[in-house]
Amino acid sequence: MKTGKLAFIFLSASMVLVAFTMNKESNNTQAKAAIEEIAGSGVSGTATFTQQDGGGVEVEITVEGLSAGQHAVHLHTGTCDNIGNHWNPTQEAHGKREGGEQFHRGDIGNIEVGNNGKGTFSLTADDWSIGGEEATNVLNKLVIIHAGADDFTSQPSGNAGDKIGCGVIQ
Ligand SMILES: [Cu+2]
Ligand SMILES: [Zn+2]
Questions:
Q1: pTM of this prediction?
Q2: Which of 84, 95, 134, 145 could hold 165 in an S-S bridge, CB 3.0 to 4.6 Å?
Q3: Which ligand is nearest to the CA of 95?
C-alpha cells in the first residue's frame, strides 16, 4: 500500500474518532447561568451545570469582583428582580449539603474568594436534574451569591447577608 493511501486511511480514522468524541460530549446536557451584579456590587460570574451519566448534576461556578473570604451560594426561586427563598421542594430546614441531616435542594455551600476577588467552586448534586421532574429540575432557578458566608445553621437561609449576584439557570 502506498504511503499516501495509508495516510488517508489514518486521517479518516482520526476524523471519525474526533467526531465520535465531540458527539459524546454533547450528549451530556448542560445549562448555564450568567451571574450579574445586584445594586452595583461589581460581582460577575458563570455557573455551568452538566448532567452526569450516572444521574445527578455537576455545577462549576466561577465568580469575580468579590471581597476576599467566604461567600454563600444558593439556588433560589423567583426572578432576579424579585428573588424568592431557597429552592426547597422537599420542605426541609436550611443546612449543609455535604454531610448535613437536612438541607434545601438549593443549598450549595461557600465559595472561597482570594485577594484577587476571584473564586471557583464545584460540586455534584445527585438530587438535581436538568429538565427532569420539577422537584429536581434546576432550570429557571436562580444562582445567588451573597455578601457573607453561610453558617449552615441559621434559619431560613444561613445568615449569609445581602444578595450581591444573580443569574438564571437556562
Ligand atoms: Cu441565598
Ligand atoms: Zn437553604
A1: 0.84
A2: 145
A3: 2
